[in-house]
Predict the 3D structure of the following.
Amino acid sequence: MKQLNLIVLALAIVAGFLLTIWLDDSGPPAQQAAQQSTQDNRAPLPVFDITALDGNTYKISDFKGKIVLLNFWASWCAPCVVEFPKLVELAASRDDLILIALSNDIDKDKIENFLAKQPDAIKEKLKSSNIIISRDEGKKITEDLFQTYKLPETILIDRKGRMAEKIVGDTDWTGEELKAKLSKL
Amino acid sequence: MTIRLFLHSLFLVLFCFAGTAFAKSEDIDLSAFAQIPILHDGRIKPLDTFARNELIRFSGKSTFEGQSAVNWLAETIFDPVASVRQNIFKIENGNVRHLLGLEERKKPLYAFTELTTGLEKTFPTVEQLMGKDAKTLSGEQKALLTLHENALEYTQLLRSFSLLLPLNVSIPSEWQEKLDMTAGEPATYLSLKKIDTQLEQQILAIIKKKGENPTRYTPFEQQTAVLGWQIKTIEQAAQNNTLFRVIPNDWDKKSGEWIAPWDMISSGKGSPRSAEYLKLWQDLAMAWQLNKPQEWSSASLELSYLAPGTLSLELLYNQIGPFQSALIFFAVSFLFTLLALSLGRSGWLIKFSAISMLVAIVLQGGGLAARIILLDRPPVGTLYESILFVGLVAPLFAILFERKLKNHIGLLCAGLMGTGIGLLGLSMADEGDTMKVLTAVLNTRFWLTTHVLCITIGYGWCLVTSVLAHMILIGEATGKTDNETLKSMRHSLGTLALTALLFTATGTILGGVWADQSWGRFWGWDPKENGALLITLWLIWIIHGKVAGQISPLVQTAGLAFVSVIVGIAWIGVNLLGVGLHSYGFIEGLFWGLGAFALFELMLIGALSFRISQKEASHETA
Amino acid sequence: MENWGKQSPMSLFIPLTRFGNRLARPDILFWLLPFMMALLIVGTIAQKTIGLYAAQEKFFGSWLVMIGPVPFPGGLTLMGIFLINLLCKFIFKSDWSWAKLGTILSHFGVIVLVFGGVMTAVTSKEGFLIIPQGESNSYVEDYHERNLVVREADKVLVAVPHEQLKDGYKIAATNDLPFDLTVDKYCFNCAISRRPENLQDGWERPGKFMMLNKAEADPQDEKNMTGVEFSVFEKDGTKLKRLTFDGFPKPPVISVDGKDYKITIERAKRPIPFSVSLEEFTRTLHPGTEMASAFSSKIVVEDKERNVSFPATIEMNEPLRYRGLTLYQSSFDLSGEKPYTILTVVENKGRIFPYLASIIIALGLIIHLIIRIRNTAKRENAAK
């Protein structure tokens, strides 16, 4: 009888058991490194001009240093109408943010009628300097430049003039999730 | 899928779009166009690959009337009016042709225009078929279903750029002013979209005033109504158009998603950059329609810059077709070696064969290397890819023992295996794009490199062992090989068998280790696991039988020759069961092929062994 | 033959050694292997009709199996003979020599492998853990074991394994259980149909309109929906007819003296020594397709016994090992409001042996090959 063989076999099995027990008792695994999200993916904003209802013109680059909400809307678009006062409230509550509401309406009267119908509180807030209401003549900015064909859409632009995110449709402008998004801009 | 889809699409194409007045000139250069990237089936590929696959899917061939697949693709997306009349749909099943009311012709290729009525008619049948289990369908039913799927895919292609193509409309001057269009500039859906709301309001006013009967309208009102209707028609036809994903999604770079033009418009995924790309596509479309080679080249070049560097490699891969080419060289090498051996001559026949073999191996290896680069993963992830890989390693191993034995038997084996395995691969390659992305469980480079390659090398080595065993049997039975050579061949056979056992056993165990890491059990009696175990057990049986003296050298050789059938069962056969983690579903041709192969081997090996045992008996009595 | 017999205390070993030597002969292996291969082939083809789990039980995990009318040794019998043969060979007939080093190592490795298999068969426990996103769970459900369970509040009063259930099975009332329960109909896999009018007597909703019927077992064992129709006899003699089955959203509750007794069919549950909560489940798709490219669950493990809590990520091909349990990402459910992750939990004391064995076997085969090649080279050089 090969005693050596028997011993070797027994040793291997015992070693296996010891290894198993040792592993069973092991502590929590090493922490996996958390992954960083890159902010470098943001595309820069193209250059264009905006003419506000009151006649002033602005270059979009004028607003660097502040958060810009570029909102595409129209008075005939139902969710835009619902969203409008919420946006105005948001813009009025912060001074580090500019709201540019770019309308797709065919003529100025429709916009002015719409604004006139707003509640007084909103009308007051509309006077803030960080809210710009404008009309997109010939839909050049909305459709040709930004390829926006369904309203409303809002582009969140960071302080460095880069586009961070696009929000399609109405959203909870007063909620925590949005606040978190804005804080990253 | 709306029931009026096919007629609707045809209608749209024929009546809404202005066709080209010119035939395409020879000067349009498609080389940059072929490189433009598209996201399809989970990976970025050049339009060349996409076009070939789609054309093969519809017509069975990768060229159309002498022109390349990308040419056909450009025609389809930029000139749908012309494309719908091209005979690209191959319908081989006679019953289906009859069902669709098609005329019989020499080559069963039909145009979309010829199919639409029949497709609409058979749609209710197809709806029912879609709910059934694929295994229960007859050949004719499957053919009908496939035709409908293909036609649907085709309509997606037709409508991909319907938003940019010039429309067959006459725009009243009042609207032209509002559109800010220069005279002669063609109207497209996108440009008409600008006056969309105004048109709608105007039409509502017209209807309010005059009702819905167009005969009561003024010409201006009629034209306005037509314009509104056309915009609506095009929009409706464009629902769910997500096939032609050529524009990167700027808002979601992490997912790597690319979007189709219509999807971009309707789902709010547009951005300034995507607008630029769409403009380039518009330029491309116009250049095609108006036959402007310069504009075509610059736009297609611009778009091709989006492609990652590997795409030009893929174009090369498509053009060369390394595996089909390698097959030819393997076959040539085999024939020449066979000729040399049967004529008993050496010299230039063998030299030529060796060069052919070298070219074949370089092509096969190069093809595999290209796939590694293009797919960015180890080379074996699907059954087809395992065939390609064995088609490289088996001839290579045969060459190795050729260097040992130096009697050209190895070269012969290499040629035989390269050809045989190459043919097997060819029979499996006609399902379009063979470069697939893998499911989550296979998404692990480590195990694809270790277990899968080890097992595939094991298969290859087993095949080499089997072929050498065949050579020994044939040599001994025919008396053409002398005893000295036979003895050294038998010794090599023993070494080969052991090596085969090493790789197969290790591969099987590695498979178990992977299973333990992924699903919590080392061995689950899965058919593929059982198959690998079967090969291991067979090899152990034969090797042990010889060592322990249970079987004679003849039986050992015969047993090792039969490994080919065992490998066939384990490698291909288990997939046919349709069970377990490795199944690919039942492919009828493979089933009968495997059965025929097994039978053939049984008879061949049986006959050879019988002959040899007779010879040995007569030698003993002598 | 060794001369152990010379020493009288060792005289007992003579018959043992002779017996061992007989058992170690290679002809046993030679006749065993075809049986194993045949069983493998038949058992694999059978999976097409009866499914993986049933085929495993019938062919590979049994001692005897009937293939048609013919009795055939089962997987366990064949493995048993194989192990004995190999052990005897290793213990009685394997001289260590450099020439034979490779083969001996390989045999040694195979013994360790089979031993690992035995350990696994005996100690492994498998089950699954379903965790909705934002919640936690510390009970593992068995994949195959189903029980008929009667519970009062959280206390389990009765648990009957499904193998014991059949038509007419009786559960008698006890101190804790104030009623008798008789199983009228038991089906391992039930199909639900509408109850015909003439059989509705004595039933209340939903059993009044729903009837369980015995159906054929599904090849995929997890899909079998086990259920029972039963009668409960209360102390005052009233007979209530109810039904319940695996996954029934509203299991029947019998109220007696203000206490509620819930009757369910459920997979056998085992607690694990820590709780797992799911923070987030993500499924990544290959872009532009519906094919998944990766699954991952971000979890937090809370071990109250050891006062340890840590986060971890479990992904396809990357399990979590903790305290002898291994948790794998096995499946998920995205159809409801919240995503659910389904983790496979395996406890297996024999899990290390296949790894050990693989290394030994591979080493053995490589050494054997090297020795053989060196011998061939020596011979050829000598011949020259």
User: Anything to note?
Assistant: The CA atoms of residues 21 and 92 of chain C lie 6 Å apart. The two ends of chain C are 39 Å apart (CA to CA). Chain C has three domains: 2-123+352-383, 125-139+270-347, 141-269. The longest strand of chain C covers residues 259-285.
